[in-house]
Amino acid sequence: LAECSVDLKGDLVISLTPDEEHSSKAGLEYLFNKGLTRADYAIIGESSGLKNIGIGQKGAIWGDIIVYGRAAHGSVPDKGVNAFEKLVNVAFAICEKLKPRLKERRSKYAFKSKGEGCSTIMLGGMVKCANRNRAVVPDWCSMSFDRRIIPEEDVIEAEKELRKLLEDLQKEEP
Fold first, then answer.
1. Among candidates 48, 8, 45, which has minimal Cα distance to 24?
2. Cα distance from N-terminal residue to C-terminal residue, the chain
3. Mean pLDDT computed over 45-71
4. Which pairing describes strands 59-68 and 120-129: parallel, antiparallel, or unpaired?
């Protein structure tokens, strides 16, 4: 920058930190949280290649969807409400109703590959159920979701969209 005679309108701070991931305890987020630095802009390194330079990235909403049922013995499953089966129905509805709409949303920005430039939702990275016994109808079950938003989307609106779908499903099958 000095050789190019660039006149900065502020300070240029360089911090070479590891660990850009969400759960980072050692990266740039740590420095910000501790008040050790502040900035108007940041460049976050990505270790997946030197040719992966881009402006911005998709944002993320992570969470868990929990479905409740009623436990019963596996020999009489009709006396219970199978939370796993209800969760499968929720996953199917998200795949049928929300995923196609998200695929239609494309960013105006150039992404490395075609699929990266649209909104997405991924279900089931983590699935948990009441694991008492294989002969017991599960009374609760949960799955994680990873909703990626493109720069043109609003995170609050994206969350509202998913919540509305889940509320509608709950009205159909409480």
1. 45
2. 62
3. 78
4. unpaired
Is 123 in contact with 109 (CB distance < 8 Å)? no
- pLDDT of 23 higher than 70: no
Other CB atoms within a 10 A radius of the CB of residue 131 amount to 9
Question: Is the Cβ–Cβ distance between 141 and 87 less than 8 Å?
Answer: yes
Handedness of CA 6, 12, 17, 19 (dihedral sign): negative
Using DSSP's 3-state secondary structure scheme, residue 165 falls into helix
CA distances from 105 to 14, 61, 149, 155, 164 (A): 35, 16, 9, 14, 18
List phi, psi (to 5°) of 27.
-90, -160
For residue 128, pLDDT over 80 is answered with yes
Residues with Cβ within 8 Å of 144's Cβ and at least 6 positions away in sequence, in order, are: 62, 63, 64, 65, 123, 124, 125, 126, 127
pTM: 0.73
Residue 32 has a pLDDT of 78
Q: What is the DSSP code (8-state) at residue 93?
A: H
Residues 122, 145: Cα–Cα separation, whole Å: 6
Taken as a whole, the chain contains a residue count of 174
96-99 LR contacts (CB < 8 Å, sep 24+): 97/165, 98/161, 98/162, 98/165
